[in-house]
Design brief:
This protein is an alpha+beta fold and 446 residues long. The protein is 34% helix and 16% strand. The chain has a domain at 26-142 and 282-440: Thiolase/Chalcone synthase (Peroxisomal Thiolase, Chain A, domain 1), CATH 3.40.47. The protein has helices spanning 48-63, 87-95, 112-125, 149-160, 164-172, 195-205, 210-229, 258-262, 295-300, 326-338, 355-365, 368-374, 395-398, 405-420; strands at residues 26-33, 37-38, 72-76, 103-106, 131-138, 239-240, 246-247, 284-294, 307-316, 347-350, 424-431, 435-443. It comes from Neogobius melanostomus.
């Protein structure tokens, strides 16, 4: 059932505002992130809560909000560090937030921090909270590697063994094969397919060529480098890594040339695949954090919000054949709820898991046949104009710490709306499990 928005007209534009009578306005006050680094580089010796703590401290420093003025903290993460399973709580304590503030951790693959934000919005909308910090962290430099199942069972039995004979019997049952470790993989549990294979199949299904993918990847890196050089990535807060220098910028931005990209071999489906290391997002360490509040509370505390967080949707599809098509499903749904069209959107920020995934989504969004056959819709939603799309780079170039990307996308939309003078922005992302997210953000009056 679509929501009916009251028509509040801006003096500068003829677009209606998405404010609704009787519903609290929720605002994004500030968003920050650590530099996103390729895994195995300067963050290699840290733990996930170290990065999350750095993002939270960056948010405290940037906003000067009192450490006890936040009502709740929510963090997203994907690959859990067992020692800090509720990383939200550990990071918040380390960052100096009051120990009276509850904190919990959510996981929803690549849209985990999106889920953290919208969970916070729900708490504010319900009148439970006025100020929530949401964020996300991912640390791929040190992922949990487990003993094999048989070895784990033997070790647990050894722990319970009461006699020397029982212990010797268990030790004698250990075979060389038991020592093979279980490594985590970026793969679907339900299909056992790695995401790269899925991206390759998706690109093939939509006829996305290797050249198109390489060109999109080159665009992402080129735009990210330009944004970095021009100081547009204002959400990045420098981080002093213990025992190392201060890290102040993302290190995965590497503009290349079509010729160099064309030399790379397929990474997943060999030898005929089109997905390569260069047109895929890389394993990334990083954390993000946003302060979201009711508008009333933000203004009472003297803050100047960056944007309104308006409506959002989550979608789910078949994880085998439509794993990465979340943006295609989420976009028309969230626009319809708000009574907007693609033409109303000034800023698009889509998560770039793979260049092939982005291009396949753009082709699906531009297909009446796909809309009618798979989505039960009469017509296509249309394609975002590239002059409005991911203009400061994206996950392919900036990096993609799984749990942290959603907050980066939302903060980037807010900053781009301010810089470009637009009114509405759209965040969209795909996630493992065949899930997706779409969120509408409205510029705060300057």
């Amino acid at each position: 059932m679509p929501l009916f928005w009251n028509m509040v007209y801006s003096s500068t534009k003829s677009k209606k505002s998405l404010a609704r009578s009787g519903v609290k306005n929720i605002v994004l006050v500030e968003g920050v992130r650590t530099p996103f680094l390729m895994s195995g580089t300067a963050y290699a010796d840290l733990m996930p809560h170290d990065l999350a703590r750095a993002a939270l401290q960056g948010l405290l420093n940037k906003t000067s909000i009192p450490q006890d003025a936040v009502d709740y903290i929510i963090y997203g993460t994907v690959i859990q560090e067992v020692k800090t399973s509720n990383v939200a709580r550990e990071a918040a304590l380390g960052a100096g937030f009051s120990d009276k503030i509850p904190a919990h951790t959510v996981t929803m693959a690549c849209i985990s921090s999106n889920q953290a934000m919208t969970s916070g919005m729900g708490l504010i909308a319900a009148g439970q909270c006025d100020a929530v910090v949401a964020g996300g962290v991912e640390f791929m430099s040190d992922v949990p590697i487990r003993h094999s199942r048989k070895m784990r069972k033997t070790m647990l039995s050894l722990n319970k063994a009461k006699t020397l004979g029982q212990r010797l019997g268990l030790i004698g049952s250990i075979r060389l094969a038991h020592f093979s470790p279980e490594l985590p993989a970026v793969a679907e549990f339900s299909t056992a397919e790695t995401m790269g294979h899925s991206a390759d199949r998706l690109a093939a299904a939509f006829g996305v060529s290797r050249v198109e993918q390489d060109e999109f990847a080159l665009r992402s890196h080129t735009l990210a480098k330009k944004a970095q050089d021009e100081g547009l990535l204002k959400d990045v807060v420098p981080f002093k890594v213990p025992g190392r220098d201060i890290v102040s910028k993302d290190n995965g931005i590497r503009p290349s040339s079509k010729e160099q990209l064309a030399k790379l071999k397929p990474a997943f489906i060999k030898p005929h695949g089109t997905v390569t290391a260069a047109n895929s997002s890389f394993l990334t360490d990083g954390a993000s954090a946003v302060l979201i509040m009711s508008e009333e509370k933000a203004l009472a505390m003297g803050f100047k919000p960056k944007a309104y967080l308006r409506d959002f949707v989550y979608v789910s599809q078949d994880p085998k054949d439509q794993l990465l098509l979340g943006p295609t499903y989420a976009t028309p749904k969230v626009l319809e709820r708000a009574g907007l069209t693609m033409d109303d959107i000034d800023v698009f920020e889509f998560h770039e898991a793979f260049a092939g995934q982005i291009m396949a989504n753009l082709k699906a969004m531009d297909s009446d046949w796909f809309a009618q056959t798979y989505m039960g819709r009469k017509a296509k939603v249309g394609t975002p104009p590239m002059e409005k799309f991911n203009l400061w780079g994206g996950s392919l170039s900036l990096g993609h710490p799984f749990g942290a990307t959603g907050c980066r996308l939302a903060t980037t939309v807010a900053h781009r709306l301010q810089k470009e003078g637009g009114q509405f922005g759209l965040v969209a992302a795909c996630a493992a499990g065949g899930q997706g997210h779409g969120m509408l953000i409205e510029a705060y009056p300057q």
